[in-house]
Amino acid sequence: MPEASSRPSPTIEVPRLDTSSTFRKEAYVALKRAIMAMDIYDHREEIRLDERRLSDGLGVSRTPIREAMTLLEQEGFVRTRPRRGIFVVRKTKREIVEMITVMAALESMAARLAAERATSDDIARLHGLMDDFQNGNNGARLDEYSDANIAFHQAIIKISGCALLAEMTENLFIHMRAIRKITIHQDNRAARSIVDHIRIIEALERRDPELAERLAREHTLGLAAHVEQHGDFLDATGDDDWRRSDGAVSSTTIVTAAKSGGPGASDGPMVAAPGLGDLRTVASEAGGRFRGNDKFPKGGEQ
Hints:
Layout: H1 19-36, E1 48-49, H2 51-58, H3 62-74, E2 78-81, E3 85-88, H4 93-117, H5 120-130, H6 142-159, H7 163-170, H8 173-183, H9 189-205, H10 209-230, E4 251-255, E5 270-271, E6 282-286, H11 292-295
Parallel strand pairs: 1-5
Antiparallel strand pairs: 1-3, 2-3, 4-6
């Protein structure tokens, strides 16, 4: 019998885990999700991100927070201001109109693809989002419809089956969601939005890509025209421009375990993220919320 080999048994080489990278990724996901869930245009004050509070809230050191902030700044979600801190980016009126125009092109292509690819279950889900609001009583349920409206637009992107379209619209969503939530509070705008959505669904059911594409494009370009005409509040710089009709100034703070106040509190609302395993954000409101009716006159399409 041959002698047993003296060579050592084979071993599995496993690279050391980069825990800082893991924490950075989780911090990035948590912060991005929290920012995207905010209504960033419904109050006057800028939203400042407090590194210490975020570190405490997420239960990690400041290093992954800083690294996550760098990624978010590269994507255009936040902006660093020397000696002031890091702030959530809010777009100007001109930037919002351009963004909506681009979104119209992307959503219209998504609708065209959806007309070719939607299953009966997909169309049934779209009906499910809209049918409950066709009884003419949506005015009393504007917040519910606002959520359904946003879900409808997201569903069209998903049904298109185009991963690149989904990727391209993801970073526009924070602004599109916020603007849509404000403008839907215009008198009778929800009703017009429902009609537009039903027509788009009917085009999908008829498997008519050209019609679905045109209707989706016109629908979103109507929002761009409305903001162009009535969106001067987006460029407001003084507190008086953001005062509500009742004279109160809207102030919104996103909080978790961190308490309001403290260093830098005068620089505007702060956002603190929840723990990595708990992605809830709680909005603490003072002086009421800014609604579309406070600044927008009637007219325009959603």
